[in-house]
Amino acid sequence: MSYQEFFSFEIDSQNPYLGIVRLNRPDKLNTISAPFYEAMMELQQTEIVRNTNLRAIAILAEGRHFSAGIDLNYARSVIGTPGRSLYGVCYWQNAYKFWHDFNLPVVVGIQGACLGTAMELVAACDFRIAAENAKFALKEVDVGISTDLGGTTRLTQLIGPGMTKLLAMTCEQIDVKEAQRIGLVERVVPLEELEEATLKYGRILAEKSPIAVQMCKKCINIAADSSAQVGLWAEEIQGIYTASTKDKAEASRAMMEKRPGNYILE
Hints:
By secondary structure, this protein is an alpha/beta fold. The chain has helices at 34-49, 72-78, 84-101, 117-123, 151-159, 161-170, 176-181, 194-207, 210-225, 228-242, 246-257; strands spanning 7-11, 18-23, 56-61, 106-110, 113-115, 127-131, 135-137, 174-175, 187-189. Helix 1 links the parallel strand 2 and strand 3 (56-61).
């Protein structure tokens, strides 16, 4: 299987350090299945891990909807397969975990429906830009399961346990205004501006000191997963490290000279 059955990947035409991932099955509403997760992991290893020039990732989706969630036709075809869930969930979690854990910052643009496991995908990204027509719902309980690719974990960190319980248990659909109010999305833009707004943030991230941006992401992730003291230790460690890098010196010069930085990841 090639990841291109589900995704496309390109380097941004304006910034060679920004990689653009697109969900690319609009005729299927970008629905999600086991092959989708496996294709995503193939793309990650083939196009991202091995490309040391990349400094940021933008995720977009073709078509009217970001994703209508699980591919129900595929799900019906594998129901009852012995051991599939026991094997699959642990393995498929890696597809979304990558975006959360990998050093590079990840911004995602969301339009139309973002349902079920698609919400788990966007929750794994670093921040979310949503179009005014975006709508969100966790539908797993309606089909007799619970979220299992980070929904009850990362959404709890984003929007708190009470709101996560409300959405996950009732399957209530919310519009983009409510999504922004509860902290599920960070920016809301008109639909026609979504791609450019998402790429704008990707380019901003790709133009800044890559070591500083990556350390910032790591420290925020550590702070979200641990005690305040552990978070402060992480800040201390990265502060000592980044202060001595060539990129830190270049960032200071670039700011004083009002020009883009010329970073070398050292």
